[in-house]
Write a structure and sequence with these properties.
3-stranded antiparallel β-sheet; 13 helices
């Protein structure tokens, strides 16, 4: 018997003929970099977020590093939640700063104002707020006000949050800058790539310079005048075509994700031993992932194994957290017990499949498989 495969994530292209037409135009033009498709993509993305500027780059990691270099974090500290992909903290190191990990809220699994306050020091130059799974945390306003009061820069890691909003403000418009990812698994993709959003004209000029080896941007400057240290961080025309088409269909993508998330929320109400990580009522999530917390004695590892045997993929955001990753243990002395809230919550966290190609029946199959296993695991002995 063939087992049906339910993927945890999957990129979706609904207008392939149009994409191929524009790719042919790029190839026929002979211009593969810094051309009209990147300009269109940047303008449309800035309009989506509601910022004056958007700058296409190679990844969310490079976006973060560029913003952190502009801020001047070298020799200073940057607060980062331990519940994020290690690239967030790595970008701080690449920019010459020291990442200071912080614990998370036990229910939202995100950074909150209490833990930001605990991590502050006289050397703090920035806070990176991660919109985990596309859910903007309820403390976003409190964290922004805290940063403004302390004259600390707020940077958003929006790798999961394309099109998400909180109280009418889009992800990427709360702080100095938002940094987005277009990795293959994300809400929208260019294969790989990233974007910086900002209202700061000087940051926009800096980013456009360093994404191409620090080329000059001022009057009389040309591409041969390299004014600062930069890198190959520009988003090329081929990927810009993919991004532009993904962006044109983003609202329908988000609508589909939200419908599937609502079905999960409804179906899971009667499933014992599992609690969805729901969003604040003021948040309109992008639902990059659908996170749940699994109650003991059920084991997340066992659940993942059983689900996979039934053809259902699942993931975790993020286990182990940054401070327990092998490289962090080796280089910075990370150890268990440093961030107890994150450790306890993330051991119980599981991400169920969620992407536009999923059907309502797929969601039902996932929930029913989860329920059967939990009832078996939690049944009285």
């Amino acid at each position: 018997m063939t087992v049906k495969r339910i993927q945890s994530s999957r990129p979706t292209f609904t207008d392939v003929p149009e994409v191929l037409h524009d790719l042919e135009q790029v190839l026929a033009s002979g211009r593969l970099m810094l051309g009209p498709y990147l300009e269109q993509f940047e303008a449309a993305f800035a309009a989506l977020v509601g910022t004056r500027h958007a700058i296409g780059v190679t990844s969310c990691t490079s976006a973060l590093e560029i913003v952190l270099r502009y801020v001047g974090v070298e020799g200073g500290e940057v607060i980062v939640p331990t519940n994020t992909f290690l690239a967030t903290a790595n970008a701080v190191r690449y920019a010459g700063g020291a990442p200071v990990l912080a614990d998370i809220h036990p229910e939202t699994l995100a950074l909150d104002a209490v833990n930001v306050t605990r991590a502050l020091s006289p050397r703090t130059k920035a806070v990176i707020l991660v919109h985990l799974a596309g859910l903007i945390p309820a403390d976003v306003t409190a964290i922004r006000l805290l940063c403004e009061a302390r004259r600390i820069v707020l940077i958003e890691d929006c790798a999961h949050a394309h099109g998400a909003a909180f109280a009418g403000t889009r992800a990427g418009a709360f702080g100095l800058a938002g940094c987005f990812s277009f990795y293959p698994t994300k809400v929208m993709t260019t294969g790989t790539g990233g974007m910086i959003t900002t209202d700061d004209a000087a940051l926009s000029d800096f980013a456009r310079s360093v994404r191409l080896h620090g080329r000059g941007a001022g009057p009389g400057s040309g591409q041969d005048a390299l004014e600062r240290l930069g890198n190959d961080w520009f988003l090329d025309e081929v990927r810009s075509v993919l991004g532009l088409h993904q962006l044109r269909h983003l609202e329908e993508t988000l609508a589909r994700r939200r419908a599937l998330a609502e079905r999960y929320l409804t179906r899971l109400q009667t499933v014992p031993g599992v609690k969805p990580v729901a969003s604040d009522a003021r948040c309109r999530p992008s639902w990059y992932k659908f996170m749940v917390l699994v109650d003991p004695p059920a084991s997340v590892e066992s659940l993942q194994r059983v689900l996979l045997e039934q053809g259902i993929e699942s993931e975790r955001l993020y286990w182990p957290p940054c401070h327990l990753q092998p490289v962090w243990r080796r280089l910075f002395g990370g150890r268990e017990g440093m961030f107890p809230v994150a450790e306890e919550a993330l051991r119980r966290q599981l991400c169920l499949p969620l992407h536009p190609a999923l059907s309502e029946g797929d969601v039902d199959d996932v929930v029913e498989s989860l329920e059967r296993e939990l009832m078996t695991t939690c049944a009285p002995r």
